[in-house]
Amino acid sequence: MLAEGFRGERAIVTPYNIRNYQADNEITKRLYITHIGYYPNARFHYRERSEGANENIFIYCDKGMGWIEYDGCKYMLKENSFFIIPEKKKHIYGADSGNPWSIYWFHFKGEHVRMFDSIIGKAISPDVSDISRQHDRIRLFDEMYQNLDMGYSPENLEYISYCLMYYLASLKYVSQYCEMWKMKEHDVIQASIIYMKENLEHKISLSDISHAVGYSTSHLNALFMQRTSYSPVEYYQQLKIRQACNYLQFSDLKIKEIAFRLQYYDPFHFSKAFRREMGITPKEYRRRYKDR
Predict the structure, then answer these.
(1) Are the beta carbons of 89 and 70 closer than 8 angstroms?
(2) Mutual orientation of helices 232-250 and 282-289 as an angle, nearest 10°?
(3) Most distant CA pair in the chain: distance in Å?
(4) Going by C-beta distance under 8 Å and a sequence separation of 6 or more, which residues neighbour residue 286?
(5) Which of 111, 143, 187, 280 has the smallest count of CB within 10 Å of its CB?
(6) pLDDT classification of 278: cutoffs 50, 70, 90
(7) Which residues are within 8 A (CB) of 64 and not within 5 positions of it... i.e. 6 or more apart?
(8) Is this model's pTM higher than 0.85 or not?
(9) Angle at 238 between CA 234 and CA 242, to 5 degrees
């Protein structure tokens, strides 16, 4: 990087005593940031580390292009792609000469880094459609930066660690991260679940659910197992038990009233199903959690 830096750049490097604190704190030692910043239009940006860095390096290319040489391969980073360079691994990276990148970046360490091995050491380009939530990731990055910029209080450092875990999880579990933005009316599984929730106090069958979403019972069953690991009927029973928990905790309905409302044959059948799912009886659940 040129000595004068990049117009509009921002960066924070934590002091070594703060890193020592982060490495010892019960919360922050899981994952913590040591460096963080944003380089816009980083023309002539170049780094070469023959021994690697002491931390893992996350680079997200927001605009433009750049490249990374790591483990004998050269990776091109384009707009909306990222790379995580493992700690203590030789690497070189730099901005494209004709279309230099703008990058969000941070260095991080922690005892739980291995949880994200599946996204480390490779160039990844998340979906950038309308449901990708990439703008939410950038806001989360800014939140980590701004909190660190406010100082190194234990509360700030701990909060940033939780944010970092969520940030990396959003890149590892992309489908789950984007779930809330999917168009539910076009998703047969979501449509099935909505139908189930609307009929928790009615007696419905697999055929009813299949008819409601326009799929055969066999096809719906296969899709449901693939997506949720449960059959539609099993999932429906879980939703009923979840509703039963709400009634037990937040209402004064008697257990037999809850059983009949949720279409169980009798209180004994309800209690048996509840215990199978929750590990305790409805009576014990109410005793533990009523109005807490």
Answers:
(1) yes
(2) 50
(3) 77
(4) 248, 249, 255
(5) 111
(6) very high
(7) 41, 79, 95, 96, 99, 100, 101, 102
(8) no
(9) 170
| φ, ψ (nearest 5 deg) of residue 264 | -90, 150
Give the chain's length: 292
7 Rama sector, left if φ>0, alpha if ψ -120 to 50, beta otherwise: beta
Return the number of other C-beta atoms located less than 10 Å from residue 204's C-beta: 18
- pLDDT tens profile 134-175: 888 999 999 999 999 999 999 999 999 999 999 999 999 987
